[in-house]
Amino acid sequence: MGRTSTCCVCVAFAFFAVSANAVDIGQIKTSKGSVTVERATQSLPGAIGTRLQTSDVITTGNDGAVGITMSDDSLLSAGPNSTLALDRFAFDSTTNQGKFDASLRKGSLSVISGRIAKQSADAMTVRTPNAILGVRGTEFVVSVDE
Amino acid sequence: MLLTSTLIACANRGTVVLLPEKDGKPTAVVVKENDRETVLDKPYAAVRQTPFGARPFMSTPEEVATKFGAALASQPQRAVSFTLYFVEGKDEFADESKRVVESIFSEIAKRPVPDVIVIGHTDAVGSDQINDALARQRAEAVRAELIRRGVAPENIQASGRGKREPLVPTPDGVAEPRNRRVEIFVR
Questions:
Q1: Could you report the per-residue pLDDT of A27-56, keeping only the tens digit for each?
Q2: Does the distance separating the beta carbons of A95 and B164 come in below 8 Å?
Q3: CB-based contact B121:B182 (threshold 8 Å)
Q4: Contact A17/A11 with Cβ under 8 angstroms?
Q5: How far is B43 from chain A (nearest CA, A)?
Q6: Domain ranges of chain B
Q7: Chain A nearest C-alpha distance from B88 (Å)
Q8: Which of A3, A16, A76, B129 gives 20 to 30 Å between its CA and that of B8?
Q9: How many domains does chain A have?
Q10: φ, ψ at A119 (rounded to 5°)
Q11: What is the pLDDT averaged over residues B125-135?
């Protein structure tokens, strides 16, 4: 790490940051068939192990499915023909306070909420084109049908 | 009536279903559509978005398996947690915790892309400032030890919760060995 623990403490107090890799908000833990991560103008393969950032949009094809662990322990997994956007993610690992907004544009999603939702009711939302889900806990599924 | 329900089913724009909790704890999702709020707070309580507005209903395990089987089958493995205990006021392991470290490594070996979250805790002796720093030091000590034993540094994050999350609740200022701990989550 190359920095003292005192310095790490300062960083943890100063920002909504988890670690030196502050931009990493989650990781793809399962990936099947066609999975893509759209990041700004790039399109990356959504392979197992891929680290995710705020504003990433994950899409699955006809044969695709993907499972993501977020840094607050939220688990999200999408079935085939799905588009999931990680719109906003902020997490303070000292206080467990934060904000997580994701949106399912199409397809199917299963969610197990994590530390952010556990700490504050409604700090986590999942949007669909027709609805806003306020997550108080813990496991649910949501679909968007075309 | 049959015609109406068929029309609604065909014009389904989306569905939300609350699933049961593994430990039976209370749980809820609030679904807002335009001005209408539907609170789902029972296992399989569900709501459908239709062109005619939100339609609450009770779903079933079979329906969830049919519609969401692929998404559910792709859920990442849940984290497995381990706890290490510390000597008072220090970042040294208590003796009984040394063998827990071995179990942590066997769990890491089981996972295709493991990452490890290390969270330090303290007892309630001292200020938040002191305990936040100590909790962080304990977590960093564990992180350093796991790295020394071969875990890739980029796969371990350490943080401290200070005295905010005691295992055994105590009044402020009470020394409690069971609260001087570090939790390790292998994900």
A1: 999 999 999 999 999 999 999 999 999 999
A2: yes
A3: yes
A4: yes
A5: 9
A6: 2-70, 80-186
A7: 19
A8: A76
A9: 1
A10: -70, -45
A11: 94
Q: How far apart are CA B182 and CA B90, in angstroms?
A: 12
Nearest to A141 among B12, B71, B154 (CB): B71
User: For residue B20, which amino acid is it?
Assistant: P
Residues of B in contact with A49 (CB under 8 A): 112-113
In our burial notation (b when 16+ CB lie closer than 10 A, e otherwise), range B100-139 reads: ebeebeebbeeeebbbbbbbbbbbbbbeeeebbbbbbbbb
- Position A21 scores a pLDDT of 44
- What architecture is domain B80-186? 2-Layer Sandwich (3.30)
The predicted-structure confidence for A78-127, as pLDDT tens digits, reads as follows 999 999 999 999 999 999 999 999 999 999 999 999 999 999 988 999 99
Measured between alpha carbons, how far is B173 from B65 in angstroms, rounded to an integer? 50
Q: How confident is the model at residue B11 (pLDDT cuts 50, 70, 90)?
A: low
The CA distance from A106 to the nearest CA of chain B, in Å, is 9
The reported pLDDT for the residue numbered A55 is 96
Residues of A in contact with B78 (CB under 8 A): 75, 112
Q: Which tokens go with A72? A: 């607050």
- CA atoms of A6 and A53, how far apart (whole Å): 27
Chain A partners within 8 Å of B71 (Cβ) = 65, 77-79, 82, 108-110, 141
Nearest CA to B149 out of B187, B105, B181 is that of B105
Quote the pTM value. 0.86
Q: B62 to chain A: which residues are within 8 Å by CB?
A: none
If you measure CA to CA, which chain B residue comes closest to A128? B14
ipTM > 0.90 for the complex = no
- Of residues B26 and A91, more confidence is placed in A91
Which domain covers residue A92, as residue numbers?
5-144
Tokens representing residue B181 in the block: 């701990």
